[in-house]
Amino acid sequence: MSVTKDPATGKWMSQLRVTDWQGKTVHKKKRGFLTKKEAQEWEFDLQIQCRRALESIEMKFSEFVTLYLADMEPRLKLSTIANKKNLIETKLIPFFGKIPINEIRPTDIRKWQNGLTSYRDENGAPYSQTYLKCLQNQITAIFNYAVKYYDLRENPCHKAGTIGKKNANEMQFWTKDEFEKFLNAVSDKPLSLAIFMTLYYTGMREGELLALTPKDINFKARTISINKSYQRLGKEDVITTPKTPKSKRTITIPNVLCKCLQKYMSHVYELGANDRLFNVTKHYLTKEMVRGCKKSGVKKIRVHDIRHSHASLLVELGFSPKLIADRLGHEKIQTTLDTYSHLYPNK
């Protein structure tokens, strides 16, 4: 450790040797300090950082993940953190938890991947390709964080390769006729009728739908303002900002949806302007989807696939990818093209 003053510039320089996580001695040097005290403080801070990095990188995977989540939590939405924690606790900790993070090798990653790809549930169904990709992205992100901030030599996921796919092999959606059959099956419940009409004729996400309030609907202009999202975290209802900045949007709605919503709202007791229009959770949507599909006989799709059904309707009506991107709240038009280009067979 050495602090010296440059007589030519009058500024101070610090240089010292520190030990990295591999036990190697590394020479560090920095110039341009205005005072000797500043140079000494830099040395002190650097030594603490190196010691912390050395201690952290030798931590067990489960302990390191605690540091990772603590750092990510203030930067991400509550729903995103909740999803991360669930994936980590159920799919990563059981396999890697007791292994020091600097001892996890590409072969360990591949063994973990093989276990996931060979899994089958009680009905013989594997994990979806998009779910596998989500898990792969999560573990890669943790090791990238260790490399960037804690001097881990390399990310073992890069050598191990990847699993899963970003997009499903085949997009599921309903035609207009299929939707009408489904709608007839759930029309015995005014709440379900209004919910699925809104989803189909707007293409909004589930969280956006469940965050809607009467104040967001302008029946005179026939528009809906989408500016928030709903999540159920634990036993608490949480309203957050939408998925991306472009997700904040105002869209037009057809007259048939206006009439449906007006009729529904007229029967909701003491509905305030800022009350949630549909006071249910995503579980209710899934449950009603299953009921409606079984009763109507139409093919079973996910609730999110109604968003794809809306996009398919727009393509059929001749809307351009740019207009569809704006209506769906995609951040980039490339997202729309990547997702729905196959619906434009002649373009």
Features:
single chain; 347 residues; DNA polymerase, domain 1; hpI Integrase, Chain A; 3 domains; three-stranded antiparallel sheet
Write the layout of secondary structure elements.
Elements: E1 2-5, E2 12-19, E3 25-33, H1 36-57, H2 61-72, H3 78-96, H4 106-117, H5 129-150, H6 156-160, H7 176-186, H8 190-202, H9 206-210, E4 217-218, E5 223-226, E6 229-233, E7 236-240, E8 249-252, H10 255-266, H11 282-296, H12 305-316, H13 321-328, H14 333-340
Helix pairs in contact: 2-3, 7-8, 7-11, 8-10, 8-12, 13-14
Could you walk me through the main structural features you see in this protein, from its secondary elements to its overall organization?
By secondary structure, the chain is mainly α. The chain is built from 14 helices and 8 strands. It folds into 3 domains: 2-57, no CATH class; 61-160, Orthogonal Bundle (DNA polymerase, domain 1); 176-343, Intergrase catalytic core (hpI Integrase, Chain A, Orthogonal Bundle), CATH 1.10.443. Strands 1-2-3 form a 3-stranded antiparallel β-sheet, with helices on one face. The chain has a 3-stranded antiparallel β-sheet with strand order 4-5-8, with no helix packed on it. A two-stranded antiparallel ribbon has the order 6-7. 24% of the residues are buried. It is elongated. Helix 8 packs antiparallel against helix 10, helix 8 (190-202) crosses helix 12 (305-316) and helix 13 crosses helix 14 (333-340). Strand 2 (12-19) and strand 3 form a beta hairpin.
Give a concise summary:
This protein is mostly helical and 347 residues long. Helices cover 51% and strands 12% of the residues. The chain has 14 helices and eight strands.
